Amino acid sequence: MSEYYAAIEAGGTKFNCALMNSNREIIELTRIATTTPQETISQVLAFYRPLQALYKIKSLGLASFGPMDLNANSGNYGGIAKTPKPSWSYTPLSQKLNAELGLPVFFDTDVNGAILAEYLWGKAQNSKVAVYVTIGTGVGGGIIVNGHILNGLHHPEMGHMLLPTKEDNNGHCPFHGNCLEGLAAGPSIQKTWQEKAENLADDHPAWQQQVDHIAAFCHNLIVTLGPEKIILGGGVLQKPGLLEKIAPQCEEKLNQYLTLPQTLDEIIVAPSLGDKSGLYGALALAMGHGSHQINC
């Protein structure tokens, strides 16, 4: 018999909330706008409480936007840390869900959940080292090493890796300027070119700059981590033809320094789970594949 799990992909724009079974089938699904913590969490609870009367839900998996507090010794363990998302800083999200629903809550960041799902069921299967990166409103990344999500002093913040740029192309990150998020995220493209990315022509120079930035980022990942897969997702990567240009540019930057057992276009790939990587990641966490949890 299938077991049932609550799975939440908590994003800065919306919460995708699902009831899923161990066969990865979605039984019920709703999308809740991310407004204030009180309003959003209340709607999440209103979705799950009737389902608890119909199904024996084993646990809840939460793959959340961050930063998240993953320090087990912290009083905000499982909560949102300081974030630019209005009113969400220090929201005890996991604790609240645990207390209100009476379910064990297994949690991590949305991108850590996504790389876990891709490792279990997608492009990163059988990889010793794999990376998942989403480039959209912001830039986030998760790393899996020998089957374990990599978290040290904090969860990876690869979007804030500094990149070389021309002096006349300063980035827009309020903290670091020329980091990947400050150069390649959707809002940064708009600030640089005074136009939304989706409105830019196919031959606009912005797209070659995107290729250069993302290829430099992939170069840094390859020489640092040696990943067998770099999985690139997010809204910016939906631009037709963009992903295919990154591997050749990265190869040029590596300049024959490494002899790799795979070609770069086999390493730098799109997600195989599409826009459900985060939701499947929440399911993977609920099924006990992560390392962070709050029990009743």
UniProtKB/TrEMBL annotation:
<keyword id="KW-0460">Magnesium</keyword>
<protein>
    <recommendedName>
        <fullName>fructokinase</fullName>
        <ecNumber>2.7.1.4</ecNumber>
    </recommendedName>
</protein>
<dbReference type="InterPro" id="IPR049874">
    <property type="entry name" value="ROK_cs"/>
</dbReference>
<dbReference type="InterPro" id="IPR043129">
    <property type="entry name" value="ATPase_NBD"/>
</dbReference>
<dbReference type="Pfam" id="PF00480">
    <property type="entry name" value="ROK"/>
</dbReference>
<keyword id="KW-0862">Zinc</keyword>
<keyword id="KW-0119">Carbohydrate metabolism</keyword>
<dbReference type="InterPro" id="IPR000600">
    <property type="entry name" value="ROK"/>
</dbReference>
<dbReference type="InterPro" id="IPR051804">
    <property type="entry name" value="Carb_Metab_Reg_Kinase/Isom"/>
</dbReference>
<keyword id="KW-0479">Metal-binding</keyword>
